[in-house]
Amino acid sequence: MVTPFGADGSVDLGKVEALVDHLVGAGVHGLFPLGTTGEMVRLSEEERMAVAETVVERAAGRVVVYIHAGAATQEATIRLARHAQHIGADGVGVVTPMFLGANDRELEQYYVTVAGSLRQDFPVYLYNIPQCAANDLKPEVAARIAARCANVVGVKYSWPDLLRTDEYLRIRDGSFAVMQGADRLMLPALAQGCAGVISGVSCVYPEPFVAIYDAFRAGDLDRARDCQRVATSYCEALRSGSNMSYFKEALRLRGIDAGVMRAPQLDLEPDAIRQLAADLAALPPVDAL
After folding, report:
1. Predicted TM-score of the model (pTM)
2. Pairing status of strand 124-128 against strand 91-95
């Protein structure tokens, strides 16, 4: 989920509620606010808690809600994770420590400490996005964490490497849930055994991703492949999440006001908006899926 900001730079919780309704209405199975797409590094702890509360309350049990709790410090991560547990979220995701390097032993201890601060029946997903967070959680380290923490139930892996994805899938004899974070790999990931996808592009266009999942589960691979091609075309139009301003502008073009970007990132220039509108207009309509 993106995080909507008002013109004054504050979080717009009313727009958060509208976005929840948009996604739930489109048939998604769960929500993952305050992750990379949600600009979490630009929000204070208090703002993150307010967004988490709003999403949980608005979802009202219609879909599962996993709050991203990873932060710049271990202490802040624990506070955010405990808050998510307190407000009734279904679980949390926790990205690797960011910016400064951490070795395998340090990553293992970090996750063991965070998971150990929570109820042992409260699910925790590891979150590995090395291209953004600067640290890489190896499958063998994830396996050691899972062996020590019963509540660490899976991983979101956002690097497009299916060979490594298979290594994650073998943790706990195949009972460790793997969520693919590379939007274009949803169908291959499902075929490989992943539980699903946590997709930034699906915040704007959930329809093709829901259709891929439904077709795959129904055994209709021809339709699943067709829907994956549609999803991929939208990923390309939205620059695959390299600039969240494309997401917010595309939502606006769909009639959903997702607010503005928070500094230092700027909204799209008029020429870029016109090009985006033209690119999207040339794609297969998602309403027909």
Report:
1. 0.96
2. parallel
